[in-house]
Amino acid sequence: MILGGTMAQRCKIEDPSGFILFPLVVHSFDLVVSSVGILSIRGTRDSGSKSPIEDPMAILQKGYSITIVLAVLTFGLSTRWLLYTERAPSAWFNFALCGLVGIITAYAFVWITQYYTDYKHEPVRTLALASSTGHVTNIIAGVSLGLESTALPVLVISVAIISAFWLGHTSGLVDENANPTGGLFGTAVATTGMLSTAAYVLTMDMFGPIADNAGGIVEMSQQPESVREITDLLDAVGNTTKATTKGFAIGSAALASFLLFSAYMDEVAAFAQEPFKQVDIAIPEVFVGGLLGSMLIFLFSAWACAAVGRTAQEVVNEVRRQFIERPGIMDYKEKPDYSRCVAIVATASLREMIKPGALAILSPIIVGDI
Question: Could you tell me the residue ranges of all domains in the chain?
Fold first, then answer.
């Protein structure tokens, strides 16, 4: 609201009320479209199905898809209604695209979180497989997975910031000195768009504790195993929805942090009456560069840990195989085949570090070229 009012004042817009009220209207629509999405959730399993329960995550995703579609429509109507100005007749469309960028970012965060936390997808299954070779490989795989999961959100946020700032910058709104002023407001609109389905996402968040408590009640009341199977499935989906909310909140906070940095530096520059000549993190490319640089540390560490974990699993499986095929090893009657384990480690030390090494070398080149 502050950014919209300030920008309207700089651009000499006669009636700035639309730019000020825009976030309130969008989030009022959020309550409506999220309510429609929540009420649309219905079970579709027929009575003859052999499955004890439908996939709860699929049902929640259908409701979220309906909410997303309605949010896109209401966001477009809101921008045309409140952000249209004669000084830049096409600016509202650019800001509508900024909102679309935010909505797509929110959907991407939900998908990424589901990919890394849902039992159906490879990361969770890989972690479960790592548990079969002991506690150490389980811990290494878990740490690696947690570090790796930061990469995709950072990439999505980086694309969102650059896209929204560019769309706002090219909206046609200029100040009294004919300088484009819509870039920062475009990022704010994208943040608003990302939060335009917040009510539904928070509803998904509440699913987790309810399912968890239901599982506890079933277990303490000694219900049949068939009942516990149903509550275990609901509990697993509840863990995913809880993680989805956290990723959603972190993503919107990352977009908002860019706005806060930019607004702070603008105020300091205006107070000091001197522009920033140092590294300015209020410039989208610089801010995104900082995000990507921080992300590389996590991703490199994740891939290195994953390499160690996979190699450790191979060694554990090889040792187990030798114990089975040569039972005399435990009684010191037979010697283990040490060369086999040495070969596994030596080969893995070369093969597994190709990806982390390529990441460290190619990332600066790719980012610099872009």
Answer: 2-42+53-281
